[in-house]
Amino acid sequence: MTATDTAQATVLVVEDTPEIARLIRRSLMLEGYQVDVAEDGRSALAAIRDQPPDLIVLDLMLPDIDGIEITRRVRALEEADHLMPLPILMVTALDDVQDRVSGLDAGADDYLPKPFAIPELVARVKALLRRTSQVRDVGAGLATNERVGDVLQFDDLTVDAAGRIATRGPRPVTLTAREFDLLALFMRHPNQVLTHQQLMHRVWGDDFFGESNVLAVTIGAVRRALEESGEPRLIQTVRGVGYVLRSQP
Question: What mean pLDDT is predicted for residues 195-218?
Answer without folding.
Answer: 77
